[in-house]
Amino acid sequence: MKHAIVDLKHVSKIYQQGEVQVKAVDNIDLQIQQGDFAVLCGPSGSGKTSILNLIGGLDAATSGDVILENTNLATLSNAKLSDVRKNRIGFVFQAYNLIPVMTAYENASFVLELQGVEKSEQHQRVMQTLQEVGLKGLENRRPDQMSGGQQQRVAIARAIVTQPAIVLADEPTANVDSHTAESLLDLMQKLNEQQGITFLFSTHDQHVIDRAKRVIHIKDGQIESDELKA
Amino acid sequence: MNIATFAARNIIRNSHRTLVTSLAMAFACAMMIMFATLMEGLVAGSERSIVAMNTGDIQIHRFGYRDNPDIYDVVEHASALAAHIREAGFNVTERQFAFGLMASDDSASGVQLRGVDLEFENSVTELDQHIQKGQWLATSDPHGVVIGKKLARLLDVQLNDELVFVGQTADGFMANDTFYIRGILKSVSANIDNAAVFMSNQMLRELIALPDDAHELVIMRQDNQDLNEATQQIQMIASDYEVLSWPKLLPVIYQFLETAHVQTLIMMLFTYIAVGSVVLNAMLMSVFERIHEFGVMKAVGVGPWQLIKLIYAEMMIQVVIASVIGVIVGGTASLYFQQYGIDLSTIADDFSFAGLALDSIWYALITLESIVMPVVFLVVIAVIAVIYPAAKVAMLKPIDAIHHV
Fold first, then answer.
1. Alpha carbon distance, N-terminus to C-terminus of chain B
2. Inter-chain touch A93–B296, beta carbons under 8 Å
3. Are residues B352 and B318 located together in one domain of the fold?
4. Which of A58, A79, A87 shows the shortest C-beta gap to B303?
5. How far, in Å, CA of B190 to CA of A201, rounded?
6. In a domain, B243, yes or no
7. Which among B110, B204, B293, B341 is placed 20 to 30 Å from B196, CA to CA?
8. What is the b/e burial string over B360-394, where b = at least 16 CB atoms within 10 angstroms of the residue's CB?
9. Closest to B268 measured CA to CA, from B379, B342, B353, B388
10. B35 lies in some domain
11. What's the pLDDT at B257?
12. Chain A / chain B CB contacts < 8 angstroms
């Protein structure tokens, strides 16, 4: 039986821009279940990325509770939040955000190193993950020696190698061509179906929306609709 | 990847900046090593000039003589006292002084006759090796004298020229005699250079009728003996007289030498503050251009302390590179200056401070402290300079940093 990995209860996020208050997230309730392949979609400025940031512990809610695996993130110190991000969350960013001085292998093993995983286990997990994302043989390439699609695959490898509770992917296909976007989606779909990895996307790319099992429409910081596909 | 490798790769990313920063630190380190070794050399050379050229470690006078050098204020039975001190393990020599007028063919000048014990003077001072022209005094040549270099210029005399002295004896009569210049000294001190006429104390005793007394006893302790301890020991032997160590005899010079290390530290501080601003600027640039990257690192779970360690590791690699270059360049230059010195005679003939003549060739002296201190200072200043950029990185909010452009 599936259980909720993420539970947002009456969550709001208000940004102060000069003297104006901007309500990016407006009193939403949302649960993300284990194994979900869900998409937050909506127009620019609708609050998709803000919701991802709140779930990822990158930002704090103005009100309400963000609960990740039964832990209310608001109760955690910065150090504990850092541990949660390191151990339980995988991030995939629009601009790949790999560390430029590290090879594909080193980028993928970086978080494992932070976790203190033994070298031999690191090696085994990283090599296996790089193979899964289709980067076998490219382990020693640095980001500037790889295409955008390959870099995003490294980012996916970095996100999943730690076996996180959830992978948060912010516009993961925005910087790649449609062919590469399809192959990245194939990859993430395969990881979701075969390994049960939970994905939550923020996107307005129709390719991603079409592939999602669950589509959550966001508008003006509120959930407009939440559809489960057959 | 360990933090050192990660840091090394980061600093290689902007190799020009790393090179400029490291070279600035290396240049300052090398300069400070040279400055420190030259100051050590100045202090050691000055001490040698003070102690070995004239003053010795300790001197004995009659109370009041130094303030008002009267021919009658003598250390009585000086030879017996000197023998007693010699038995206690010290090197000691007696000196007699008299004032008068010395005339050459063309000129005349007030002089101080300095009678030295030719048997023992060279066991206490190195005056006999400090001859610019001619030779030191000899017992076989009682009318031979050695004079200061400025006095020779003043009297317009050369070696073997004749001098006529007119003065006063200790018993109240007129003293006069003829002397021949056998040697001219290199610069020793303002007093000696301008007015000293050295002769055997036997000759001077006869000239001023002062048979067994002396105006000054000069003592040199054994190499490893503590100066204060030695002074106390001499004071016990010569309890009726004023016994002073050279720092008390020449307090201004002693203070200058004592504060030489402080001067070096102050110089280092100012130089390194300038270097610190270079390091701060370089590290700030390095941090600001990577804020987005630090944000991503924080997002994936890198803690603030790990980022601080990374920033410090990047700085330390540059400091190590700079220190190695600085020590090699500064050490090599110091080694050269220790061997050959800096010849200041092209700037001026004589250099003096507080009446003490300094050698016109300025030698460096390499000590462990003079090499280690500039490196330690460099590390300390760099560590301080990086506090702000490191703290800035540590306090970055990942959400703000990720969206930083």
1. 27
2. yes
3. yes
4. A79
5. 89
6. no
7. B341
8. bebbbbbeeebbebbbebbbebbbebbeebbebbb
9. B379
10. yes
11. 82
12. 58
Place of tokens 């209860």: A9
Give the mean pLDDT of B93-104: 93
Write down the pLDDT at residue B355. 67
The nearest CA of chain B is from the CA of A225 a distance in Å of: 27
Partners of residue B306 in chain A, C-beta under 8 Å: 114
Strand partners, A39: A201, A215
Cα separations in angstroms, A123 against A109, A112, A152, A161, A162: 8, 10, 20, 11, 12
Mean pLDDT on B202-220: 90
Are B183 and B206 members of one domain? Answer: yes
Looking at the 3D structure of chain B, how many domains does it have? 2
List, in order of start, the domains of chain A with CATH numbers.
Answer: 4-95+165-228 (3.40.50.300)
Q: pTM of the predicted model, to two decimals?
A: 0.75
The CA distance from B213 to B32, in Å, is 51
Q: pLDDT tens across A82-121, in order? A: 899 999 999 988 888 899 899 999 999 998 988 889 999 9
Q: ipTM of the predicted structure?
A: 0.86
Q: Are residues B35 and B96 in the same domain?
A: no
Give me the domain span that covers residue B98: 58-220
In the listed set B220, B240, B267, which residue is the last one of a domain according to the structure? B220
Burial class (CB in 10 A: 0-12, 13-18, 19+), B73: middle
Domain's final residue, options B162, B193, B220: B220
Domain co-membership, B12 together with B98 = no
Quick check: is B228 in a domain?
no
A210 against A175, higher pLDDT: A210
- Please tell me whether residues B43 and B121 are part of one structural domain: no
- Yes or no, beta carbons of B9 and A53 under 8 Å apart: no
In this structure, the number of other CB atoms found within 10 A of the CB of residue B36 comes to 29
Mutation pick from A97, A140, A167 vs chain B, by most beta carbons of B within 10 Å, is A97
User: Is there a contact between A78 and B304 if contact means CB atoms under 8 Å apart?
Assistant: yes
3-state DSSP assignment of residue A145: helix
Is A97 in contact with B296 (Cβ distance < 8 A)? yes
Which residue bears the tokens 């991503």?
Answer: B296
CB contact under 8 A, B399 and A79: no
Q: Tell whether B65 and B42 lie within a shared domain.
A: no
Task: Inspect the interface and report whether the beta carbons of B299 and A59 lie closer than 8 Å.
Answer: no
Query: Is pLDDT of A64 > 90?
Result: yes
DSSP letter assigned to residue B371: H
Looking at the fold, whether B165 and B93 belong to one and the same domain comes out as yes
Q: Which chain A residue lies closest to B300 (C-alpha atoms)?
A: A86
Can you give the C-alpha Rg of chain B in angstroms?
31
Whether A85 sits inside 8 A of B301 (CB atoms) is: yes
Q: Which residues of A touch B296 (CB under 8 A)?
A: 91, 93, 97, 99
Q: What residue type is B108 in one-letter code?
A: A
Residue among A120, A131, A183 nearest A157 (CA): A131
On whether both B129 and B112 belong to a single domain, the answer is yes
